[in-house]
């Protein structure tokens, strides 16, 4: 009888140990956090949101699913899931130490015991919260790439919702305009990030504009035998009689500078130098002499940039 009782007690003790182990390791808060992080890495936003029980703010959802979400946790390596810390009531805080984007960070998650599985096992759930947000500011830039996903930017500043942890990369590249990549990390539900894109003209656009400007000036220099070629930015007035041929040549071409003004791309004033050569006769003495002068010139031009075409329209008074 004593042997039977001892065996029963050992069985009960073993069962208690098993229940304790299963409750802590399989049904514990660590399991919920691990499942959430796995959903993030798999790009399963629906599952991640269901686990986190978070409210989605009124914001762009490009980072909440599929490739945008996968990219936000690309390379995520969980280094340690800490022991639960009592947060009062049935709640605990759980620290997760991880590496993301080559940097080591820590995020804290709050969970609460809400129920039991099969009488013995605790049911843990994330305490409801609101997803963090980040803003992308890009004045006059209608679109960008956020974690590799093309997104529209209907306003100068656009807000995006995100899970955490997340590493966000924003950039813009096209044939004629580009903005260098900007990055930031989000590590908690209280985090915010503000990424500012500074879009600039590419060398391809500058070359296109430069070619158009040179073509325009070439037309002016080919209009020979005129002291003031019509529709051109340079001229010369003199009281002497100027004999043919009259020749203009560009000695210093304008430097092309493209800037954004109130969301529009404009050309800075185009400044250069032109040289006039001819023979002139003094009307009083009749003496002939070489005419050789260099004239500064400046003009404005209207810039129009399409998806594949560039147009430069000189504005000559």
| Number of H- or I-type helical stretches | 5
Radius of gyration: 36 Å
In N-to-C order, the SSE pattern is HHHEHEEEEEEEEEEEEEEHEEEEEE
The CATH class of the largest domain is identified as: Alpha Beta
Unreliable stretches, pLDDT < 50, 5 or more residues?
Answer: 4-25
Q: Mind explaining what this structure looks like?
A:
With 317 residues, the chain is α+β, with helices and mostly antiparallel strands. The chain has 3 domains: 2-130, Nuclear Transport Factor 2, Chain: A, CATH 3.10.450; 133-200, Sandwich (Immunoglobulin-like); 203-315, no CATH class. The protein is 23% helix and 44% strand. β4 and β5 form a beta hairpin. The longest helix is centred in the N-terminal third of the chain and has 24 residues, at 2-25. It is rod-shaped and about 115 Å long. It starts with a helix and ends with a strand. The model is unreliable at 4-25 (pLDDT under 50).
In terms of topology, how is this protein built?
Elements: H1 2-25, H2 29-41, H3 45-52, E1 54-55, H4 66-72, E2 77-81, E3 85-86, E4 91-100, E5 103-117, E6 121-126, E7 129-130, E8 133-137, E9 143-146, E10 149-152, E11 157-161, E12 166-173, E13 177-186, E14 192-196, E15 200-201, H5 203-222, E16 241-252, E17 258-261, E18 264-267, E19 270-281, E20 288-305, E21 310-315
Parallel strand pairs: 1-7, 8-14
Antiparallel strand pairs: 2-4, 3-4, 4-5, 5-6, 8-11, 9-10, 9-12, 12-13, 13-15, 16-19, 17-18, 19-20, 20-21
Helix pairs in contact: 2-3
